[in-house]
Amino acid sequence: MRHYSRQEFHSIFGVKVSNPRNGVLIGYVGDMSEFGLKIFSELPFVRDERLRMYLQVREEVIACDLNAICKWSGKSADVGFFEGGFCVEYPPASYTAMVKRLRGRPSGTGIGHSFSVSMSV
Length: 121
Fold this sequence. Notes:
By secondary structure, the protein is mainly beta. It has a single domain (2-104), classed as predicted glycosyltransferase like domains (Thrombin, subunit H, Beta Barrel). It contains one helix and eight strands; from the N terminus they run βββββββαβ. It has one helix at residues 93-103, and strands at 2-9, 15-18, 25-32, 36-41, 50-57, 63-75, 82-89, 112-119. Strands 2-3-4-7-6-5 form a six-stranded antiparallel beta barrel. A hairpin with a 3-residue loop joins strand 3 (25-32) and strand 4 (36-41). Residues 107-121 have low confidence and may be disordered.
């Protein structure tokens, strides 16, 4: 059993995801942990597809470049966007630092809150 502490965002527009090669918007992070993230997008994701992505927190200089593999994809009835679950390949130190920094924000910042998830794999 794995135990993940995930950062969930009140506003899906808090962390922007773009293609680092051309700057094209991919979507926005819905939640994240040290090992993965959920991304909302206007376009569907392809399961098992490997994506290179650039994450940036709006209004702050917190950014990182990483590679992730889509593990699942579907249309969210809650927000009306497509969503995809990604496993981060060899999380870079900048990504881990981003997750820890966002998790450490005081409540009431409007970005989100942490919660824990336990999974059997």
